[in-house]
Structures are given as C-alpha cells and as structure tokens.
Design a protein that fits this description.
CATH architecture: 3-Layer(aba) Sandwich
CATH class: Alpha Beta
InterPro entries: NAD(P)-bd_dom_sf, SDR_enzymes, SDR_fam
CATH superfamily: NAD(P)-binding Rossmann-like Domain
GO molecular function: oxidoreductase activity, acting on the CH-OH group of donors, NAD or NADP as acceptor
Radius of gyration: 17 Å
Largest sheet: 7 strands, parallel
Distance between the termini: 33 Å
Oligomer: single chain
Structural class: alpha/beta
Number of helices: 6
CATH topology: Rossmann fold
Family: Belongs to the short-chain dehydrogenases/reductases (SDR) family.
Strand content: 5-15%
Strand order of the largest sheet: 3-2-1-4-5-6-7
Number of strands: 7
Shape: globular
Length: 253
C-alpha cells in the first residue's frame, strides 16, 4: 500500500494522475494527496475526490512559496504517521509561448521558478517524508522538448523558456539521483508525451489517459536501479514517429 503526492493536481496530467492512482487497488495505493496552489480544489478535482471514498485528499501546497510548502508538511505527517510518503510526483509546470524567438523571451525567470526552483523547494521539504517510506521515489514530470540531443526536432515550437527549464529539470533530477543513491531514494525524469490537455492543446498526439497510464506504469515498474534516468512512455504504433517517438526507452539528454 503506497502513498502518493501529486503537485499540479487541479487539471491536466496532474488531475488524471490523481484519478488513475485513486482507482488502483488498496494493496497498491493507500492514499493520494492531490496538491494544488489554491485553498479549494478545482471543480474537476473535487469530483474525483468525492468519488474516491476517502482515498484522495486535497492539500494546499503553494509550490512557489517556501513557507507555504513548509506549512503542508505537518499535515502530511499527521496523515502518514511513521510510514512516510512513498512517491512524490513533481508535476506542476508552466509553458509560455514566444513567437518572436529566444531573443524575445521575457518569461524565463517565471518559468524557471515554477519548473525548476519550485520542484527543488518541494523536494527539499518533502524528502524527509520520502526517506521514511518503503518505496522512496521522486518523479519529475519532464518532456523530450527539454532534450538537447532532440532540440532540432522541436525547433518549430515557440516555447524556449519551457525547453530551457525542462532541460534544467532533467539535470536537477540527475544531481539528486547522484546525491541520494546510497540512501536508496529513486529520482526519475519522465516524459509523459504530448497529451491533450489545456497546456498540450487538442492538437496533441495522445489522449491524456493514455499518457498518464504509462506514467503510472513507469513509476510502479522502476526503482533505484533506474534512478537518474530520463524515461519515455511506450505506445504501440508510436515507436518510430517524428518528432515524438513513444518507444518506452530512456530519452537522450
């Protein structure tokens, strides 16, 4: 019975993650904390919570506010006791558009704050809970758009700040993996694919439930032996697509 916390749970990938995790058997998932930056859950999240029979709990976790993050820790400790938090999923993120190109980018600081610094601050605050748990996993939701090796594939996308910060998130994941390998804590960067969400748009490749189902599989099937890797989802028929190949392999940096 594992415990999960998912940031950015109000909508999109985060909401679908909470929903799918909440539907797993009790011997796989005991509780899912749906973390948002708002005091009240969104209408969509509230519906998921109401249907979960107490398995999903909303928690206020303002990821860009250190004091706010710290305030959530005692609440989590009260619910988890001495079992700790098995899986932290750093999902919350932002993506802005810069049609004028990189030189016209004005959102780098804001994007870095959410996509990198907030992940770091959340991880620092919750890591003691993760270290107390049985599974000890931290999952950072990334994207192959943050791959420098694949940068040419995504030249068409006017999202330089998003690409830059996700590349930084990948390195952050590796640094944590190296630092905590001896303590048995698994850190993974996972690309969920281009999914049909508010952020991904309806032009995306896959329905959100398809990509998220794969993210859940990756979380469950990978442990310390995979720590520090950048993993891709696996979708039959998409193994050799361009630019998005969903081959289930490690993505290039």
């Amino acid at each position: 019975m594992a415990s999960y916390l998912v940031t950015g749970a109000s909508r999109g990938i985060g909401l679908e993650l909470v929903k799918q995790l909440g539907k797993l058997p009790a011997d796989q998932v005991s509780i899912v904390f749906a973390a948002t930056r708002t005091k009240e859950p969104s209408a969509g999240l509230q519906q998921v919570i109401d249907a979960s029979d107490g398995k999903i709990a909303h928690i206020l976790l303002p990821i860009t506010d250190k004091a706010g993050i710290a305030a959530a820790v005692p609440q989590l400790e009260a619910r988890l006791g001495d079992k700790g938090l098995d899986v932290l999923v750093n999902n919350a993120g932002v993506m802005g558009y810069t049609p004028g190109g990189t030189a016209a980018m004005t959102d780098l600081r804001e994007t870095f704050e959410v996509n990198v610094e907030a992940v770091h601050n959340t991880t620092v605050a919750l890591l003691p809970l993760v270290q107390k748990s049985k599974l000890k996993k931290v999952i950072n939701i990334s994207t192959t758009m943050g791959s420098m090796a694949l940068a040419a594939n995504y030249k068409f996308a006017p999202t330089p700040a998003y690409k830059i910060t996700k590349a930084a998130l990948n390195m952050l994941t590796v640094q944590y993996a190296q630092d905590f390998a001896q303590q048995g804590v698994t850190f993974l960067a996972v690309s969920p694919g281009w999914l049909k969400t508010d952020l991904g748009s309806q032009m995306a490749d896959l329905e959100v439930d398809v990509g998220v189902k794969e993210v859940v599989r990756i979380i469950q099937e990978n442990g310390i032996e995979s720590s520090g890797k950048f993993l891709n989802i696996r979708v039959p028929g998409w193994e050799n697509k361009v630019p998005n190949a969903y081959d289930g392999k490690s993505s290039p940096w």
